[in-house]
C-alpha cells in the first residue's frame, strides 16, 4: 500500500492511497480530503492513477474544495458524513459503517468524531487512521462547532486504537504544536526529543506525517489531559482548580487558541 501526501495551500495534505501495483496505466486510487484539485490532478497524471473513490472527513472548504473539479475529470463515488454542507457526497456514512475499496486492499471503519465540526468523521483500518482535523501530530483541531465534552470523547475514541496506528492528519502543524506542548510540559523529555526531530525534518523540506499514536500519547497535551503535569499547567493558566479531564482539555484548547 502506498499513501502519498499531496501538498495544498499553505499547510494542507491531501492523502492519495493506491496499491503501488505496476504494469498498467490508470491504476485505481483513493483520495482523502481534496481541498484543491490542481495538485491532485497533476499527481494522478504523473503516477497514471485514476480515482476509485473520494473520502471526506468534514465539510470545511480546504478539505472539499477540489471535489467538483476532480469529479469532472474522474466521475467516482464520494464517501463522507451526513451533512447538507457537502452535496457532492454520494455515500453518506456514520459511526460503525465499513467500506472496502481497491479490490479489498483498503478496508476502513468509520468513527464519528464531532468537535472540530459536528459532522466530522475519521476512517480507520489496518492501523492507519485518516482523521482530518480532529487529531493532529502534537495537537488537535480548533473547536469550531462542538463543545469540550464532545471533542474530548471523540479524542478518546481515537486514543484507544492500537499504539502502532499511523495518524494521517490533514495539516503540517507538527512543529508549532510541539512548541506549544513544550510550554504545557516543559519537563517532558519526549516532547523535546520529538520537536528536535520534527524541526530537522522541516529544515530538510520533509513531511512530518504520518505520526504514530504512541508518540501522541507521549507528547500531545490534548491526549494527556488526565496527566497531572498537564492538569497542573492548565490550572496555573486558568488560575483555579479543574475537576475533570474535560475541563483540562477545554483549558488547554483555550490556551492554544490564544497562543
Describe it for me?
Its EC number is 3.1.2.6. Belongs to the metallo-beta-lactamase superfamily. Glyoxalase II family. One of its GO terms (molecular function) is hydroxyacylglutathione hydrolase activity. Pfam families: HAGH_C (PF16123), Lactamase_B (PF00753). The chain is built from nine helices and 14 strands. It is α/β, with parallel strands linked by helices. It folds into two domains: 167 residues, Ribonuclease Z/Hydroxyacylglutathione hydrolase-like (Metallo-beta-lactamase, Chain A, 4-Layer Sandwich), CATH 3.60.15.10; 85 residues, no CATH class. It has a six-stranded mixed beta sheet, covered by helices on one side. The chain has a six-stranded mixed beta sheet with strand order 7-8-9-10-13-14.
Quick synopsis:
The chain has 259 residues and is of the alpha/beta class. The chain has helices at 37-47, 61-64, 67-73, 148-159, 174-184, 189-203, 213-219, 228-238, 245-258, and strands spanning 2-8, 12-18, 27-32, 49-55, 78-81, 91-93, 98-101, 106-112, 121-125, 128-132, 135-136, 139-140, 166-169, 211-212.
Tell me, briefly, the overall form. globular
CATH topology of the largest domain: Metallo-beta-lactamase, Chain A
* Order of helical and strand elements: EEEHEHHEEEEEEEEHEHHEHHH
CATH H-tier superfamily of the largest domain: Ribonuclease Z/Hydroxyacylglutathione hydrolase-like
Helix segment count? 9
Percent of residues in beta strands:
25-35%
